[in-house]
Specification:
Layout (H helix, E strand, L loop, with lengths): L12 H16 L12 E6 L4 H13 L3 E5 L12 H8 L5 E5 L3 H10 L4 E5 L5 H15 L7 E5 L4 H13 L2 E5 L8 H14 L3 E4 L2 H5 L4 E4 L11 H8 L6 H4 L7 E4 L11 H4 L6 H20 L1
Parallel strand pairs: 1-2, 1-3, 3-4, 5-6, 5-8, 6-7, 8-9
Helix pairs in contact: 1-12, 2-12, 3-4, 5-6, 5-12, 6-7
Length: 305
């Protein structure tokens, strides 16, 4: 039976941990998996551009013995030039998996419904599950565990990255606090779902507007750009609202002394984070970016093997 990865919630806690174990083995011994997906093709549908998503999926499928096919907005233009249904029905006959990075979450849901091959969500306006997998893989590497003793604090806009951090934290048992300006809280349905999931693992999922309270005792402090793709017209106003939530040395002082700094990148230095924080010794943004490759290879392996 085919499976998709549209949300971190598509994997159980055990499956996420298995994926991390697999990802770390792939990271250690690339040659061991060089023919794992030999001859398989992955279509890469990009409605939104990305350095890390493009590179990690393209390289990742090749390192597993497969190959990729890049499809730009000009070639597909989902729902406009061609319906999602028709794209799904065409591609399922030609490739063995589809990664899609797009705007509306309903597009990946429809693609998964219509296609008989695995669909991987490379990003939607609602969720960024592959980033979430890389983030917690990184946390595991640096902290050696994923449980209720850890606190992940996300500072900034309650966006798709924050949503996936909440979902993954709830699944894994890691406490997650989102610290944001009033009116920029995460999606209420996502928050409710995450808090419900967290009852099983004992994780605490919180949202607050108060920086010192929210960041206190953080094991990792995470942030993202204040204006995501499609919000460029709001950038100046968002900068005014979010500047008090900039991750700088003062904000980091509320966290534990050994707290990691994390960012999904690209970073707007001087806005959501200062140079002194992103370039500090406890910043793991580049290992985190590399872990997109390993985490996604594990996801592809589990879905396409």
């Amino acid at each position: 039976m085919k499976r998709d990865f549209l949300s971190v919630r598509d994997f159980t806690r055990e499956e996420i941990l298995e994926s991390f174990e697999l990802a770390m083995d792939m990271k250690k011994d690339r040659a061991k998996y060089a023919e794992a997906l030999k001859g398989q093709a992955l279509a890469l549908i990009f409605e939104k551009p990305s350095l890390r998503t493009r590179t990690t999926f393209d390289i990742g499928i090749q390192q597993l013995g497969g190959y990729s096919l890049y499809l730009s907005p000009a070639e597909i233009n989902l729902g406009k030039r061609e319906s999602v249904y028709d794209v799904a029905k065409n591609l399922e006959r030609m490739v063995q998996g589809i990664m899609i990075r797009t705007f509306a979450h309903s597009i990946v849901e429809d693609m998964a419904k219509f296609a008989s091959i695995p669909i991987i969500n490379g990003l939607t306006d609602l969720l960024h599950p592959c980033q979430g997998m890389a983030d917690y893989l990184t946390l595991l590497e640096y902290k050696g565990k994923l449980d209720n003793s850890l606190k992940m604090v996300y500072v900034g806009d309650g966006n798709n990255v924050a949503h996936s951090l909440m979902f993954a934290g709830a699944r894994l048992g890691v406490n997650v606090t989102v610290v944001c300006p009033r009116g920029f809280e995460p999606n209420l349905n996502v928050f409710r779902t995450a808090t419900e999931d967290a009852k099983v693992t004992g994780a605490v999922i919180e949202v607050t507007n108060d920086i010192p309270t929210g960041v206190k005792n953080a094991d990792a402090v995470y942030t993202d750009v204040w204006a995501s793709m499609g919000q460029e017209s709001e950038a100046a106003e968002r900068r005014r609202i979010f500047m008090p939530y900039q991750v700088n040395s003062k904000l980091m002082s509320y966290a534990k002394d050994d707290a990691l700094f994390m960012h999904c990148l690209p970073a707007h230095r001087g806005d959501e984070v200062t140079d002194e924080v992103i370039d500090a010794a406890n910043s793991v943004v580049f290992p985190e970016a590399e872990n997109r490759l390993h985490a996604q290879k594990a996801v592809m392996y589990k879905l396409m093997k």
